[in-house]
Each structure stands twice: as C-alpha cells, then as structure tokens.
Write a structure and sequence with these properties.
Strand order of the largest sheet: 2-1-3-12-4-13
Number of strands: 13
Largest sheet: 6 strands, mixed
Distance between the termini: 42 Å
CATH class of the largest domain: Alpha Beta
Shape: globular
Order of helices and strands: EHEHEHEEEEHEHEHHEEEHHHEH
CATH architecture of the largest domain: 3-Layer(aba) Sandwich
Radius of gyration: 18 Å
CATH superfamily of the largest domain: Periplasmic binding protein-like II
Oligomer: single chain
Length: 270
Amino acid sequence: MILVANARMYAVTPAVREAWRTLFDWVARTSSVPLEYVDHAAPAPLETLWAREDLGTTFMCGFPFASAARKPSLIAAPVPSPPRYGGLPRYCTDFIVRADRPFARLSDTFSGRIGWTVGHSQSGYNAVRYHLLRHEHEVPLFAQWVGPLITPRRVIEHVIEGKIDVGPLDSYVHDLLKRHEPETASRLRTVESTAMTPIPPLVASPAVADDIVELLRGALMSGAIQTELAATLDVLVITRFAPVSPADYAVLLSQEREADGGGIARPTQG
C-alpha cells in the first residue's frame, strides 16, 4: 500500500515544497515504506486530507489532532532551527502588522480589524483567542474579525493590502518566509507573539499498522537524516525531528476552554 505524504501547512514556497518532497522521498527509501507526495493545495479543506485512511507522513495542526475522537498516529515533529525555539518541537503565533503602520504593540490595533484563518487552527484561531485573555479588560478588543482567511498566505496578503490591521501568523511559517521570501517578510512586522506550544506533528492514519509507523518514525529520527539531508534540513529551517505524545497537545484544548470561559468572542464568518 502506498501511503500519502503531505506538507501543505509548511510548503510556503515552491523551493520549500521541493525540499519537503526530497525529505519524504528519503524517508520512503530509508524506511522501505512507499510514500507518494500529494499536494492537496488550497482551497481544498485540510479536514478532507486528515480524514484519509492512507496518510503516511502528513502535517496535522495540533488542535484538530487533540480534538479528534479517533486520533491519527503521531510519528514525529520538526524542531525549527531559530534560537527562539530552544531546540524543542514547538512554535507560536506572531501577530503581524504591515511594516509601515504605526502600531508598536498589539494593543495599538485594538478597535481595529484582526484576521483569522479557520476555526480548527491553533496558530490562526485558538492561540489568538487564548492570548487575548491577558487583554480581556481592554474592550472592545477588535471591531471586526475578518475571516475565515483559511491560509497563512491570505493573512499575509490581507495585512499587506490593508484589509486587516493585524493578523496571526504561524511562527515557523514566518521563519520560512524570512529565509525564502525576504522581500515579503520585510513588509511585515511582529508586534507581539503568543507563548510557545507543541508544533504541528507529522501523523499517519490510525488505520496504518503500528510497525509501519515505527519504520517511518525511525527514519525521521535517525542520525542519518542529519548527515545525509543536512542541506535539505537547512532549506526547511529545522535541525531534526523529535518524538511527541498525545499528552503534549492536550494543552491546546485547555486553551480553548479558558478562552471560552474568559468571554473571548468566537468570530463569525464575514
């Protein structure tokens, strides 16, 4: 059985997409598990990808993973190389504004327009609402929540085009953008960031046998990947892959409950 590999969440440019394909091809050869890269490009819903029974190594957002009644099998998670991650498989949300706007702090954008991606996103929705708890007494927080914008790229476009004042951006996407599309990154500025949480993992369908998952995990976490794919890892702005467990992602559900309990409004489409 040929299993599906996909990195849509982090295939931010064509060069990065090809680097992911190189990595997955190496994993397939090393593990002897056949993998086929499937694009599943936007605007195709990620939920339909995650529901497939033939997932092999596919990125899945941590919040829907934690929320799933029938959880996929965790394989491993990337460890981004920039110092702010401390050598751990984690990330955060950067609140971005257009570089030439006068905003110095997130609170400077209050009463304005904030973007959001989709309701099952940790970086583009859940983390945003949880972070706003620290500002819950500064009302109104925002006059308008603009979305669902679906992808980080559309959040970036809306910020640059002035359609929103501030938007949430997955910090690892942001770091990939700084490396591979610096002209776009230079038009953005981070005014605040959320606390770190576990980064989206690579998963396999729960229908995939445990021994196959172990083969894929072994390839991703082998020392050989750091020597044989050093240049590819550099393109991907990661140092290695690390083990993660379902318990790591339970904090994301706690954040949702706290945001709901704190009265942080759930945005409506519009």
